[in-house]
Amino acid sequence: ALSESTLDIEGMTCASCVNRVQKALNRVDGVVDASVNLATETASVTYDPAAVGPADLSAAVERAGYAGRVRQ
Ligand code: 9UX
């Protein structure tokens, strides 16, 4: 079964930021879909929990240059 998590993202100020974060999340193995919302500063990520976990999602956002924390 797939899981869906919401991440709070800090540091995005324009549409290019959104694209960077969205691409970074979609490139992670096990991520099925990632959609980033600039207005709410969140990402909604659907993923295979056997392949990827919340820490991997946060790490991908941080490698892209932003802060990302998975909502509990
Ligand atoms: Mo836009 Mo974001 O000019 O790091 S790409 S602010």
Automatic annotation (TrEMBL):
What is this protein called in UniProt?
A: P-type Cu(+) transporter
Q: Which residues of the full protein are shown?
A: 6 to 77 of 1038
Q: Where is the signal peptide?
A: none
What are the HMA domain coordinates in residue numbering? Answer: 3-69
Where is this chain's protein located in or outside the cell? Cell membrane
Question: Which source organism?
Answer: Nocardioides agri
Q: Which family does it belong to?
A: Belongs to the cation transport ATPase (P-type) (TC 3.A.3) family. Type IB subfamily.
